[in-house]
Prior knowledge:
The complex is a heterodimer of chains A (718) and B (438). Chain A is α+β, with helices and mostly antiparallel strands. Chain A contains 24 helices and 21 strands. In chain A, the strands form seven sheets. In chain A, strands 2-5-10-7-8 form a five-stranded antiparallel beta sheet, with no helix packed on it. Chain B is 36% helix and 17% strand. In chain B, helix 8 packs parallel to helix 9.
Amino acid sequence: MRLRTRRHRTYLSSVVLLLIAPTLLCAADAIDTKQLPGILLDNTAAELMGPWQPSIHTKPYIGEGYIHSGVPGRDEASVPKTLTFRHKLPKSGKYGVYLAYNANSNRAAAAPIEIHHAGGDASLKLNQREAPKGPALFQSLGQFDFNADEEAVIAISDKDAKGIVIVDAVLFVPQNEIAKLDAVAKKLAEAKPEAKQKPTKKKAAEEKVAQVAPAFARHPRTDVQLLTPESLDQLIAEEAHITDATDLIDDETFLRRVTIDVIGRIPTEQERADFLADTNPAKRALMIDRLLDSQEFGANWATYWSDVFSYRIPQPELTYLDYQVFQDWLAQQLNEGTGWDEVTYRILTATGKVGDNPPAFFVGFHQASTSRLAGETTRIFLGTQIQCAECHDHPFVDIPQERFHQMAAFFVRTNAKLPWNDSSQIEVGSKEKGEHKMPDTNQAMMPAVFSGDAMSEGASDLDRRVLLANWVIQPENALFAKAYANRIWERLMDQPFCDPIDEITEEAGFPSLPSVHDAVAAHFIASEYDAKPLMRVILNTKAYQRQLDAKDELAGQLTSAELRKMRGDVVFNSLVTAVELPNVEGTPMKPTAEMRFPPPPKSTQDLVNEVFGYDPSLGRAFRPQTMQQAMFLMNNRQLQNQVKAGDDQQTKLARMLKETPDDRQAIQRLYVNVLGRAPQEKELEIAYDYVQEVESRGEAFEDLLWALLNTAEFTTRN
Amino acid sequence: MIRPFWNLVAGRDHVSHRRGFLKQLMTASAAGAMTLSWRDMLVAQADELRKTGKAMILLWMDGGPSQFETFNPKIGSKYQGPAKAIPTSLPGVHIAEYLPETAKMMHKIALIRSMKSSERDHFRAIKLVRSGYPINPSIQYPTWGSVVARDRFDPTYDLPAFVRIGKPRIKTRDVNSGVLGPRYESFKIDQAGTLPEDVLTTVPEERLRRRLDLSARLDAQFASSGGAKRVLEKQEIYQQTQRFVLSPKLEAFRLDKEPESLREAYGKTDFGQGCLLARRLVETGVSFVEVFSTGNVSDQGWDTHKKGWDENPKLAEGIDRGYATLLRDLDQRGMLDNTLVVWMGEFGRTPKFKPDGGREHYSDGWITCLSGGGVNMGQVIGATDDEGVSVSDRPVEVQDLFRSFCHVLGMNPHDEYVTDLDQPLQLVKGGELIHELF
């Protein structure tokens, strides 16, 4: 966007120059701006376009609050917004330009900022998930020359910002006063320990509440290479010694497979028709891009990760765990491309209420259990199972008992308050004291990472968890990216590199294709731990797009595609797509004196998950088809209501039959809607004969729809 | 007919799978020479064994019933409330007046008054008493019904091996099949006399069969293009499901088949009718039935912290006829010898009481009653002191109870299974047989 200065305009400057009238508006929440050199423009001085939202939620701030671009999901967030500061600086010359904001993980990863200066326009992207480098809330945007007779213009928008844009104030500091600003920064930094020397009781309590981990900072790594689908295919062919493989799948099979894998449902009739009609030779790659860009991508994979965590979190006493808050948060991170390193850091270091800070669910839902958190942290984030070492040295591999307890010691000062009934009110905090003790000897065990030195006694909870998180996510820790790559590979290719999926250490696992595993993990690191580029490269390979081995004659990994049973959420979403299954939610009961702990009502989606869900960390042998699943598809009342075709019915089937009087065409459409493919000739004949045999057309098609929903194929990704 | 060890993972093609191999080794050694023949026999004659094998009915008093107001009143103790003691069919043995019908069946009960555990928290105690293992944050031990269901699993039998009737008073305080997975989870009936909706077909049998047949024919294309194994798995499960939902044995779930006088005798409470259903299911070949008693008034159930003097008579009335009639009915039908009936909760209640009769949790001298399955009935095992404060004779631990269950049910307590997380687990760990029972 080219910025034009507007020379002939009037604007209200009286309220904006806090430096001219530097009053402290609210001593407790606002920053003392008196000491700052230069010219400060509060957000109230900016010209706003679009529905920017005023807020005083995150303290401190400058002036009477700040503005933001809207909470994702609300209407105002989706409306484009721009905001412009214009000011004629008193003297021509070089100025340092600073923006004040508050950081959080839901903030913009790339807030676009344009600066109109004497030499032209500068544009940059600011990552507001990272805390401003100071002083206080200020982040330098660089130094620029400005003319006194021309307006300095700073324009900020929320276009492609990947999160909430926060604007609190802008500060211009003449070059010769920047040293003064640095001095102020230093003073502010020193002021803190002074205050700590004489803490009043009240202050100490406040500090306890305010404990928050430092903002995430990425560990850079430069020696990792991106893959291309071609280079990955080549590597697979070499490593897996593939000489004979199945052919590539046709377009409709590809569309169903990739739609299930990326966004967690079967494609619609329209999506299939559009895709088949597309003549662009690059349409598969374009479809992969489109699916990865869809909001359903984050929602789908958030439920996968929710399954990974929740299947190993036992039901706590008197509080029903609701993972929706976590799923919504993770879906947003996935859609915005937040790195898995940052997500992991936030999960391991989170404090506060789950409702306010969803990554706190991990410690909170585990009720701050040190042993479970130790075992689950290494299992999920590092693909390393140490829980057997809780009681004894690991029987198979070199994991001494100490290692488990050193890991447990990282969590010994976490604290979780569980209020009754409502899991979003679970609050994660820190204990002031306490060390982890070995079970038999009662010897204090200090936290230490697998090959590292132990921390010194008395380290605070957050120091412990921050150290652990940084160790887990650092690029030198090869297990971190490999654990993730192993899971994604298993989801997309059905066979993980290492089996079990959550055991990838060299000692315990049985790796297949180790150099492919390493290369895929390196690609993930080089993509800054963003799931989308990782999946993109895999989905575009030939290896991903192979047919099933129909004759069961090909040996070896990746020579053909494999079947997979859909996860519970995928079955539900596919039923919604196929027959418009409604999600009946039920009304939650309020606790009463008689029923103090009313269980939350089960929605249709909950029911489907209960029946079809499986622990995704366990292999195929642990995803048995059950009688409950069969009974659900055969008899469930809500589902059967969608299989009705009577004239009085509002179902998709009834509509379709009205629209399509020709029986063969109707059969075709039914196949496409339920199985995502056209029927084979023989199938068409079987179905057609059946329809002719049954007297009522409606009843015949009801039976056919029922039969298709109950095929093995419907709940299978092939 | 093969009894599948579904928790055994086959190694992947061309990949030597050390842990899978170890698992097989462990299972093989756990089976051992001695028990292998026993297993072989089971595999060969599972159906025969299930028919003759003993069943178990667990009557679960959810919340922890007071021993003073049920089976161990302490007349003369300062801790006894208004409940009086009444004589029973067993000379010299008195129980609380709130269980007059049960008193008449005391000669068919082996009463243990000296149960002891260290768990006085519901959550922890329920985990212990329903699985036989103390709570472990890393392992979800299966409830005992699932362990029995695994032992008795028979894919050719129409009905599930493990049925639960009623619901826990608080949903979070529960134990399920845990590491044994969904196959051995209980089949749940919220209220006796109704079946879960998904069991009931929505179309006439003839049309359902037509639909199933059409679906199977439409599976053929998928089977021939790479989905053969998946289709085979589906067909097996659908045959089993079809047998179940169309089974004449489903009649067992219908209570209107029973004479009204007998339904009346069981008591028209959820628990009473649940006991009647339990008998019908066991009669039809179900191996394990749980019947929950929660009082159905509030989620306090047997957890009588408040209004104990008011609540205990009502709670007892809710179970008295059902329990007594179940024992009599089983006995009259000649089924008691082959059916172990156990009455218990997760613990007992404190001697000290509040003015309204509320008592807190207490795990010293709580109650378990056993009948049938060949145990010696008409006896009292163990005792508490005169005040009812602590066990004075023959303490019995939870693991002892489970060892004895194994003995009755013909299961080897040292038998191991491998969990889905690769851990070998014994059916029961520790404990000694309660020799008075046999």
